[in-house]
Amino acid sequence: MVMTEKEKMLAGLPYDPADHTLAADRRRAQTLCRRICLDPFGEAAARTALLKELFGSTGTDVYVEPNFRCDYGYNIHVGEGFYANYDCIMLDSAPITIGDGCMFGPRVSLITATHPVEAERRCWRDDIPYEGEYARPITIGDQVWLGAGVIVNPGVTIGDRAVIASASVVTRDIPADSLAAGVPAVVKKRLNSV
Q1: Is residue 51 left, alpha or beta, with left meaning phi > 0 and alpha meaning psi from -120 to 50?
Q2: pTM for the predicted model, two decimal places
Q3: Phi, psi of 102 (to 5 degrees)
Q4: CB distance 144 to 161 below 8 Å
Q5: Which residues are known catalytic residues?
């Protein structure tokens, strides 16, 4: 049985993002993101309804400030009491799962898509077969705070109640009840859990 490019993407296998089905899915997400962003002072209930249409699943109480961007939307799952500040980006070629009570500062980026590092596997040239990109899921536990400008790389899990300091780049898992900072982010101290 031959897998579609979407099935490959969802399975974490190399896929071609130029596939017509994936391109149509991205256009749908871009249209909804545009509607969310066009009315920054609009009714909160209307924005929440658009987020529920865009995302794969949400809690009851979710709020995202404009300008929000994502690739597909249907791979994003947020819990209750989610808040994302301005200019949040979620490239959701793989699932992004966010727990309850999470807060994101401005310009947080969650990036699940990646490419081979070897040029001969990554480049788009007639004499080199393009292998496509692939994606790894991101999982964020409950009551996590991501400071302004945090970037979370593919395949990362951030444990419950963790805090990631502003401008950090998270390249590996961060345990629960930790304060992490830096490029790459490392645990600076353990936090007391409540």
Answers
A1: alpha
A2: 0.92
A3: -95, 145
A4: yes
A5: 115
